[in-house]
Amino acid sequence: MRTMDTMLLLAFEDAFLRQRQLRFQYCDSKRTVTSRNVEPQAMLILQPLWYLVAWDPAHEDFRHFRMDRIGRPQVEERATFQRRHVPFEDHVRPVRDLSR
């Protein structure tokens, strides 16, 4: 696991709240680096890993990106989007109930 880019959380928050696309470099598990433009929809935290859940217009599908593999995030000012229903929202539950 690598260190998360310090600008990523700020860029995610800005892009998510203003419904702007997020552009970044992504390094997959095989260390192949690709450029991505996505529509950020949610953040999923499964300790110790954090994931960006986004609609990927190039693939016309949802994608999950490990946030420690994202670099050089930038908010695309001109590229807007509508929020989508994230399929896992109804099924993800905490591992344990923290209120007990």
UniProtKB/TrEMBL annotation:
It holds the Pfam family WYL. Residues 9-74 form the WYL domain. InterPro entries: CBASS_pafABC_assoc_protein, WYL_dom. It comes from the Bacteria. PANTHER family: PROTEIN PAFC, PTHR34580. This is Helix-turn-helix transcriptional regulator. It comes from Pseudochrobactrum kiredjianiae.
